[in-house]
Design brief:
elongated; Arc Repressor Mutant, subunit A; Tetracycline Repressor, domain 2
Length: about 200
């Protein structure tokens, strides 16, 4: 096996640290997890953590970003596999791919604890970038759904994606607090939203 370059070795170390931090943050919580524990879980020293991240808040932001990116990739992949059935089938695929993550209490706890530890500017900057990426994924998926229905979006795709992202995030917060809210509600609400948008008259 070829020896890793310095850059490849650093990237591998960083990836393993993020994977370890993700497991510990979700299992034990952000506050309860130390940098030493992350290094030990990944098989490295605390120094290795500091050589890759400015501190625990920094690695926490990277972990949360990665969780969102993974959910977005899974959603886009699920929708891309739908070849027939129109917008409703696309919405079903989107909802099914997100049910496991929307309202996950461990994920919600991580975000809350991370928010409490970050400075206002750091939190706002990280959140703005993260949610913009989420809206971008929603926009791409919904634009493809309208194309499958052989009609242009009846409203600004950016506005529609804002509505969908707000629905997903808002429902996630409520389900994290109240698990009695069924996961199936996501699909039902998405159908209501996208159905209303698709039924709306197209602007001249």
């Amino acid at each position: 096996m070829a020896r890793l370059t310095r850059a490849e070795s650093q990237e591998r170390t960083r990836r393993l640290l993020v994977e370890a931090a993700t497991r510990l943050f979700l299992r034990d919580g952000f506050r309860a997890t130390s940098l030493e524990a992350i290094g030990e879980e990944a098989g490295f020293s605390r120094g290795a953590v500091y050589s890759n991240f400015a501190g625990k808040t920094d690695i926490g932001i990277v972990v949360v970003d990665a969780l969102y990116e993974r959910a977005a990739r899974d959603a886009a992949a699920a929708v891309s596999r739908v070849t027939e059935g129109g917008p409703r089938a696309w919405t079903d695929a989107l909802a099914a791919s997100l049910q496991a993550s929307v309202g996950d209490p461990d994920w919600a706890r991580l975000e809350i604890e991370l928010a409490a530890s970050a400075t206002r500017d750091t939190l706002r900057a990280a959140g703005a970038t993260r949610y913009a990426a989420l809206r971008g994924t929603c926009r791409d998926v919904l634009t493809a759904a309208y194309a499958a229905a052989s009609r242009p979006p009846p409203a600004d795709p950016d506005l529609i994606s804002l509505a969908v992202a707000s629905l997903v995030l808002g429902l996630g917060v409520q389900r994290a607090c109240d698990p009695a809210i069924p996961a199936e509600a996501l699909g039902q609400l998405l159908h209501l939203l996208t159905g209303a948008v698709l039924a709306a008259p197209t602007a001249p």
